[in-house]
């Protein structure tokens, strides 16, 4: 089976007027259909940069990124992004209009079809009661759920999520994580999820890629995350193991 997303030897650099910043160095991984694939690493290791490159917003200086065998060259409706920031919704549009917007503009669906699809995904994130609300009247968690509904309604090949729950309080964060997993049970979408929290990576992912600090290089890949259980202590053991893998070099000094 060929991978849905194939990231092969990808080096990503930013050119600023004074310096050339290498964000990731020859990173390789692949994501299969229905994977919940997590990029995990400390701040500054290039997770967001990798996600942006998969999104088509940044071209690799080295290596290739392919979706279903096609090289990624620009942004496309086959890859939808959900960001950490709460201000990613259009403030002058209601919840329903926000979710409909890319369906009308990018997918060019007829209005009725776009509305039906938007309503169905808003229902999936339990926000039907807020259909006609404007973003400024919603809590942070509700805004993130709208952004998730908007991304999922496009039915992309892969949903790209950049720390979508990082700015939420702990309780809301847990609820949003549970909802995302519930949604995944229903639709088995493919997601590439960025986080710097080991616990969140274990909760969300079935596979986790561990990245070293700046510049980001692959440290290890953990592929059997689904086998751990939060109740028998195995999740705690995996968390400890991942912590050791991530910080092995620091411990040696
Ligand atoms: N627009 C930019 N111009 C120059 N350097 C940048 C730019 N964006 C990011 N960088 C640098 O690239 C490196 C990787 O940044 P990136 O945001 O991808 O890391 P990250 O792992 O997502 O971190 P965090 O968890 O803090 O968001 C960092 O050293 C950062 O300073």
TrEMBL record:
Annotated GO MF terms: ATP binding
InterPro entries linked: AAA+_ATPase, ABC_transporter-like_ATP-bd, ABC_transporter-like_CS, ABC_transporter_ATP-bind, P-loop_NTPase
Annotated signal peptide: none
Domain ABC transporter, residue spans: 5-238
Keyword presence, ATP-binding: yes
Keywords: ATP-binding, Nucleotide-binding, Transport
Keyword Transmembrane: no
Cited SMART domains: AAA
Family named by the database record: Belongs to the ABC transporter superfamily.
Name assigned to this protein: ABC transporter ATP-binding protein
Annotated source species: Microvirga puerhi
Lineage: Bacteria, Pseudomonadati, Pseudomonadota, Alphaproteobacteria, Hyphomicrobiales
């Amino acid at each position: 089976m060929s991978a849905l997303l194939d990231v092969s030897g990808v080096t990503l650099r930013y050119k600023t007027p004074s310096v050339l910043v290498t964000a990731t160095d020859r990173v390789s991984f692949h994501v299969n259909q229905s994977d919940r694939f997590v990029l995990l690493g400390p701040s500054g290791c290039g997770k967001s940069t990798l996600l942006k490159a998969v999104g088509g917003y940044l071209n690799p200086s080295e290596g290739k990124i392919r979706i279903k065998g096609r090289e990624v060259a620009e942004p496309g409706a086959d890859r939808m992004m959900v960001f950490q920031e709460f201000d990613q919704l259009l403030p002058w549009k209601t919840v329903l209009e926000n979710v409909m917007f890319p369906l009308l503009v990018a997918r060019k669906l007829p209005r009725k079809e776009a509305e039906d699809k938007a309503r169905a995904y808003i229902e999936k994130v339990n926000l039907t009661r807020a259909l006609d609300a404007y973003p400024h009247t919603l809590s942070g968690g509700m805004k993130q759920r709208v952004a998730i509904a908007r991304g999922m309604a496009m039915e992309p090949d892969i949903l790209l999520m950049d720390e979508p729950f990082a700015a939420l309080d702990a309780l809301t964060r847990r609820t949003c994580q549970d909802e995302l997993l519930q949604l995944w049970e229903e639709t088995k979408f493919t997601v590439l999820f960025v986080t710097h929290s080991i616990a969140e990576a274990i909760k969300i992912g079935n596979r986790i890629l561990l990245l070293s600090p700046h510049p980001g290089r692959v440290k290890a890949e953990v592929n059997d995350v689904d086998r751990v259980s939060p109740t028998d202590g195995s999740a705690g053991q995996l968390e400890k193991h991942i912590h050791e893998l991530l910080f092995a070099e620091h411990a040696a000094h």
